[in-house]
Design a protein that fits this description.
Number of strands: 15
Radius of gyration: 25 Å
Shape: globular
Structural class: alpha+beta
Distance between the termini: 75 Å
């Protein structure tokens, strides 16, 4: 009996020490929606660490206009409350503390999506959570403006309209400065909140230069960094830096369509393109003509292209290769994107994704498309 108790105590101690415990985080949200009797209130989370919310609970508003949501989360996380008949939402932090939220009939506006919700005794954590999604909404608009101004700069340059070019450049500069200001404001107000790491995973982790992401992380407080999400972020940033331009491309081995093993190290001495794609990915296939053009131009000069498929069906994979007539080497784990070890190694969260590798096996650039991709490969071969 003593031995059995000792074993159980030891297991508990190990779990607590290593963070392997099974503690769940409770949530208890209640409030009033006076005009919502019989309608639904929803609670969602963000399992993919993107603004795409998934409903995890719902309740019907009682005859007295009250509602209540309660349950347990597998971990502390960002949440969102919504209600039937509205596009509005209010982000809040699932930190185990009860929250009381009043819902009002306010016309939805993308500029103020949380206007219908009032958290009684609003905490700094809930305010930080709201600021995270607000930044995402603002940046969505900014990115559209950026594209418009960049196009304007290119057009005015071709037309030699220096006045228009200067105007577009000034507007682009203002948009970029607005982004920096909002990031700095978030760090100043909420940089030590439990919610702070979610600002990075929602807004900065994907498609942003690793130096920018790391700078934001370094600006967070120690309390934020020591959360499970903060620790996870530190590891993610280290992985991102390992894939930054100038870093050695991680070696891997995958089977070809004929079942033979291919290793990346076999391409040492060649400029190479790693093209992550799948038979079901229309944008990937739309990008193929550009890569084909580059391959035809430089294959006799030593260019190697490796198609790394995220398929899980060999038949679909091979059929697509034959149909599109893709002339380069193809490999795949046939485990799909989420379970492919090379996709994890190269942080492939979405496709198409592309890496350019030089003769020394170092990453030159990634995620280039169209003319930018052609220009970069031209530059590499021009240096030879």
């Amino acid at each position: 009996m003593y031995m059995k108790s000792w074993i159980i105590s030891t297991i508990i101690a190990i779990c607590l020490t290593t963070g392997m415990g099974f503690a769940q985080v409770p949530y208890q949200i209640e409030g009033k929606w006076a005009t919502g009797i019989g309608k639904k209130v929803y609670l969602s989370n963000f399992p993919a660490d993107t603004p795409e919310a998934v409903t995890i609970d719902s309740t019907i508003v009682a005859p007295d206009g009250s509602y209540k949501l309660s349950g347990k989360l597998d971990k502390m996380q960002l949440l969102s409350i919504t209600h039937e008949g509205s596009k509005g939402y209010r982000a809040l932090m699932g930190d185990g503390k009860p929250a009381k939220i009043l819902i009002r009939d306010v016309e939805y506006s993308y500029k103020a999506p949380a206007a219908a919700y009032e958290i009684i005794g609003d905490s700094i954590e809930h305010k930080a959570s709201e600021a995270i999604l607000a930044y995402w909404g603002h940046d969505f608009i900014r990115k559209m403006s950026e594209g418009m101004f960049v196009t304007g700069i290119e057009k005015s340059t071709k037309e030699n309209d220096l006045s228009k070019k200067a105007e577009c450049e000034e507007k682009l500069k203002a948009v970029l400065q607005e982004r920096e200001n909002e990031k700095k404001d978030f760090l100043r107000q909420y940089g030590n909140c439990l919610a702070a790491p979610y600002f990075i995973v929602m807004n900065l982790l994907k498609g942003i230069p690793v130096d920018e992401t790391e700078a934001f992380y370094n600006g967070m407080g120690e309390r934020a960094k020591k959360t499970s999400k903060g620790i996870e972020l530190k590891e993610s940033i280290a992985k991102m830096k390992a894939l930054a331009p100038g870093a050695k491309a991680p070696d891997f081995t995958l089977p070809t369509v004929t079942g033979e093993d291919f290793s990346l190290k076999s391409l040492q001495g060649h400029i190479a393109i790693l093209d992550f794609w799948a038979s079901w990915c229309a944008p990937c296939i739309a990008e193929m003509p550009t890569v084909k053009e580059i391959y035809a131009k430089y294959k006799d000069k030593g260019l190697k292209v490796v198609g790394i498929s995220m398929d899980n069906s060999k038949a679909a994979w091979m059929k697509s290769i034959d149909k599109i007539q893709i002339p380069w080497l193809h490999v795949s784990s046939l485990k799909g994107m989420k379970r492919c070890p090379v996709a994890e190694l190269y942080q492939v969260y979405a496709i198409p994704k592309l890496y350019i590798i030089d003769k020394e096996g170092k990453i030159v650039d990634k995620d280039l498309r169209g003319e930018d991709l052609k220009k970069k490969v031209d530059e590499l071969f021009a240096r030879q």
